[in-house]
Design goal:
Oligomer: single chain
Strand content: under 5%
Radius of gyration: 21 Å
Number of strands: 0
Shape: globular
């Protein structure tokens, strides 16, 4: 088992090296940033998770982690699934490495065109908010929401209250789309325009996205919104044509680290009533170790406890309710693995495994790599600001691959955001220059 961990570590380091090489060479590769995020926040944790005392994590009430049982069969299933994704990602990165250096065409929509699309998107988002907050349960949930709790149990109970309250047709899903996709894309267009009051509009849109994230009563959505708008703001203050590896680290990586880790620790202190030291330990465990450790539940129960769910189910899995009578939910997975019902959400690889084993993992990995590969082909033809804007808004969806299905990734803006921005820039171009 230790040998598997060591080999896994070297494969991850090789993947990270290739990704960094592409980025350092000035290549605009969404694929490289995506695999870096997944490797850092999910795959890397599998190297050390089996050997850590995860049951002593303070913020979780009586945690149970199957990965610490060191079951070689279960661990090998999980590791090999990650190797399949890593292998396909490396192939995609090596192909991109052979592309000529970015020789982009400049697609220059007029400021009026950008403002036009910004207004259209902002209007659509506003309509969905009115539907949810004024004619749905949104305002009641918002007014009763808070971040301060005395314990983890109380915080989890507050989240469960929302899940039990919301029903289909109340507008929550469309409002979430507006919060994570529509408003951020509109904010990007306004920032790129020469509108006199674009900063005020940007702040209003950021606040609007934050309102929905706050009423979810969860830390991750709120941090994701802060991360996206924070990166967009930084992007607006740098010359995107002169971004190099030092600028990326100083202007993007460091702020992202600060928001994710420091912001996460502060929210753990507020949300769960933890001391600063325990909050720091908890956020490090939550971001770097728990995603991979929770994944193990899926590789244990499929196919030993449940049959594989089917090839058509590799894209998603039910949360509280099964998609059809014979299907299972993330709560069923948790109960089968640990004997306790809880929200055992895991990565897109784990969900694909539950659908069709290694075949499901290979197909979903291939689908993700090819999708990002095609997006990169278009992004490299556009001015650098478009790529960096896409990356900033996609930072939240990229992180969702760690704890959600492929369909969840798409629903939060993965692939949708790049496609939307590329289409609008392409269709609105005025001049084309080499």
């Amino acid at each position: 088992m230790l040998l598997l961990s060591v080999v896994h570590l070297f494969l991850i380091l090789f993947l990270i090296s290739i990704s960094f090489y592409l980025i350092a060479k000035g290549r605009h590769s969404l694929l490289a940033f995506t695999v870096l995020g997944f490797a850092f926040f999910d795959s890397l944790g599998l190297v050390i998770a089996p050997y850590l005392p995860l049951e002593s994590i303070k913020y979780l009430p009586s945690p149970i982690f199957i990965i610490t049982e060191k079951d070689l069969l279960v661990y090998s299933r999980q590791i090999i699934s990650h190797w399949i994704f890593i292998g396909l990602a490396i192939i995609g990165l090596l192909i991109e490495m052979r592309w000529p250096k970015n020789n982009y065409f400049r697609f220059l929509p007029s400021s009026k065109r950008l403002v036009f699309w910004g207004i259209i998107l902002a209007f659509i988002g506003t309509v969905t908010y009115v539907r949810y907050f004024m004619f749905g349960p949104g305002s009641e949930i918002l007014l009763s929401s808070r971040l301060f709790f005395e314990s983890t149990v109380e915080a989890i109970a507050s989240r469960s209250e929302i899940r039990d309250t919301l029903q289909l047709g109340q507008g929550a899903w469309m409002a979430s789309i507006s919060s994570t996709i529509i408003f951020p894309v509109a904010a990007f267009f306004f920032l790129k325009s020469s509108l006199r009051y674009r900063i005020i509009v940007f702040v209003i849109l950021a606040f609007s996205s934050g309102v929905y994230a706050f009423q979810t009563r969860q830390k991750a959505p709120l941090l994701a919104i802060i991360l996206v708008y924070g990166l967009l703001w930084i992007l607006n203050r740098v010359d995107t044509k002169k971004i190099d590896i030092k600028t990326i680290i100083r202007k993007f990586v460091v702020p992202a680290f600060f928001i994710s880790f420091v912001g996460g620790a502060i929210l753990y202190m507020i949300n769960f009533g933890l001391t600063p030291l325990i909050a720091i330990q908890s956020v490090l465990a939550r971001l770097l170790i728990i995603p991979g450790a929770t994944e193990t539940n899926y590789f244990m129960v499929f196919p030993d406890y449940f049959n594989f769910r089917g090839l058509n189910q590799i894209f998603d899995i039910g949360l509280r309710h099964a998609q059809f009578a014979s299907d299972v939910t993330i709560y069923d997975v948790a109960y089968a693995a640990t004997g306790v019902r809880f929200s055992s959400n895991a990565s897109f690889l784990a969900v694909a495994w539950s659908g069709a084993g290694y075949l499901g993992v290979a197909l979903i990995s291939l689908f993700l790599v090819i999708s990002l590969f095609i997006i990169d082909r278009y992004l490299r033809k556009m001015e650098p600001a478009v790529f960096w804007g896409v990356l900033a808004i996609s930072s939240g969806p990229i992180l969702s691959l760690v704890s959600g299905s492929f369909l969840s990734f798409v629903g939060r803006g993965g692939i949708v955001i790049p496609a939307m921005i590329i289409y609008i820039y392409w269709s609105s171009r005025l001049v084309i220059k080499k």
